[in-house]
Amino acid sequence: MNKTVLVSGGTGFIGSHTAVELINAGYKVIIIDNLSNSEKNIVDGIERITGTKVIFEQIDTCDIKALRGVFDRYDFDSVIHFAAFKAVGESVSEPLKYYRNNLISFMNILELMKEYTRHNIVFSSSATVYGDADVLPVTEQTPRKPATSPYGNTKQMCEDILRDCCAAYPVTHGIALRYFNPIGAHPTAILGELPRGVPNNLVPFITQTAAGIRKELSIFGNDYDTPDGTCLRDYIDIVDLARAHVAALNRMTDGKMTEKYEIYNIGTGKPLSVKELVERFEAVNNVPVPHKYAPRREGDVPSVYADPTLANKVLGWKAERDIDDTLRAAWKWQQSLS
Ligand code: UD1
Q1: I need a surface site. Which of 114, 200, 261, 338 has the fewest CB within 10 A?
Q2: What pTM value is reported for the model?
Q3: So which residues are the catalytic ones?
């Protein structure tokens, strides 16, 4: 069995943690990344944690000529495709940048997999594909609502592209993992989330505020129809999320897929409000996070959380890390940066 896997976007937040878990599970990892939102030294971090040398090439997945070279040089049968832009707000102001990057990179990978007869691909999808769902928790059968941003639209489109390629090409087998809200850091504090500029996502903003880099956290909206008026989300630990990729890949490489294209929710199934998350972070880390209530943020859905039963049953994967440990790891990582 070919246990070599190409990881596009492998120096990013989710990609780097996944590379570690793949290596721990006995896979050989080839990382490609254009370093547009990450640093080369992340590769050193992966190697330090695993004690294993990693192949890294600085390549843009949109550059099909360079990507073809990777397919020529390495013998792998599986790909995990993370390489994509992910800032929701930026996607609204620069839609073409998002459509071009996220769609072309994915189609290049699928094109070359078909040409070089490479079988398995895991795609990074997102809970964003559900939009403002009518019924919670969402299952994989919950109808997708129209995307609220070009970023979300690219996730929906890539899912559709993958579904169609799996249906049309005998060689292509795909799994889309719909992530809920990935947070935390590696327990060693060697890897974590490295947002450039002012963070958009909640937890990096919390850790930077606790560290004094930001003056105050704004909690966007306290008048939602939720128990405490702030939004509900399903926060999934980054190491748990990384392990879901290993479970998906094992299923593919063991030839256990029953459909050519499968979708799984990757979440805890336990919603937390923004207010609860902030207070929990303060309590477990014994550090204040100055915060105030601010108007709702455009494009936010009031509540979204997973029914992860399918992934639990079929992938044999379950979120295991305690939220308190996740919030401790996020703080330890932030402190390691100063
Ligand atoms: C967004 C994306 C999601 C993506 C995720 C991780 C959408 C609609 N959402 O999720 O696809 O997977 O990022 O990159 O496409 N909040 C504050 N103050 C802040 C920041 C956030 O109150 O300074 C609140 C938000 O209003 C929200 C919650 O915290 O209720 C989580 O926000 P965020 O971390 O940005 O993730 P999502 O918007 O849920």
Answers
A1: 338
A2: 0.98
A3: 151
